[in-house]
Amino acid sequence: MHDRFKKRFQANRSTPRLRLQIAKEAARRMYDVIGPKEGEDPQTLRDASESAYYTAKRKAAAVLGHRVRPGDLPSDSEVREEVLALARARAGGNFDETDLEEHEELPAVEQMADHLDRFAIYKMRLEPLETVKQNPRFHPEGDALFHSLQVFELALEVRPYDEEFLLAALLHDVGKAIDPQDHVAAALEALRGTVTERTLWLIEHHMDLVERRERPLSPRVRKAVENSEYLEDLKLLRSLDDAGRVPGAPVGTLDQALRYIQGLEREDYLED
């Protein structure tokens, strides 16, 4: 495995607390599949396939804002234990769906994951960019969708494994089809709850490294950017944003870009 992949995964090994959080969230997702029906013994659990458990655990990790390698996810038995605990709590009448301490900080992402296809949202936000014509002085490449696909292709060359960064590259300008006067704020409003905090932060600050005499950064924002753990990611995104302005550059389609990112959940790149 390439060193950069090893470094990334070493930095994202799960702690016991994170394993428990993922197990609890996965159990909530698996409850209707394997949990007891109304009136049944709380100890009654059904069987489920390994793939069903794996999918629940991967989605749970994503909802919690983490990318964890498969070997560091909780085991299926750990998830079943949390389903049992959930069943006993419900049977005892002391369970409140709105009072889950472990999930208080992430209801927006959780709701999106449960009820919406986030990739459908991405596509809905990206497609209108094809009609957004940009100032040829700064964007000789053409419309905003073509630019976004160029930036994505460049990001793919350097970070093929990094879903959060790839999404920032692809989605950074979606606000231009909503409010051209403040496309960053519009993008944040449109995407909040469908991407992780890291992706959202990169989109929020992708213009902050551009020197603009007419609107310099405030000391507060400059300090927040310079002290961020994502500063190097932001510098890379900024350089790719600047480079993705070549007329006629070869790019894939929007559907191809979204399919690639969806495929990262299978972690095919780990076979390289």
Q: How would you describe the shape? A: elongated
Residues in β-strands, percent:
under 5%
CATH architecture of the largest domain: Orthogonal Bundle
CATH-defined superfamily of the largest domain? Hypothetical protein af1432
Number of helices: 13
Helix fraction, binned, reads 40-55%
Tell me the radius of gyration.
21 Å
- State the separation between the terminal residues, measured CA to CA: 7 Å
Unreliable stretches (pLDDT < 50, length at least 5) are 1-12, 95-116
Tally of individual domains = 2
How is the CATH topology of the largest domain named?
Hypothetical protein af1432
Main sheet characteristics: none
Summing up helix and strand content along with how strands pair, one would put the structural category as: mainly alpha
Work out the number of β strands: 0
Order of helices and strands: HHHHHHHHHHHHH
Average residue pLDDT: 80
**CATH class division of the largest domain:** Mainly Alpha
How would you describe the overall organization of this protein?
The longest helix is centred in the N-terminal third of the chain and has 19 residues, at 16-34. The protein has helices spanning 3-10, 16-34, 50-63, 76-91, 107-115, 118-126, 144-158, 163-171, 183-191, 197-204, 219-226, 231-243, 254-263. It has two domains: 3-104, no CATH class; 118-271, Hypothetical protein af1432 (Orthogonal Bundle), CATH 1.10.3210.10. The model is unreliable at 1-12 and 95-116 (pLDDT under 50). It is built from 13 helices and no strands. The protein is mainly α. Helix 2 crosses helix 3 (50-63), helix 2 packs across helix 4 (76-91) and helix 6 runs antiparallel to helix 13 (254-263). Helices cover 54% and strands 0% of the residues.
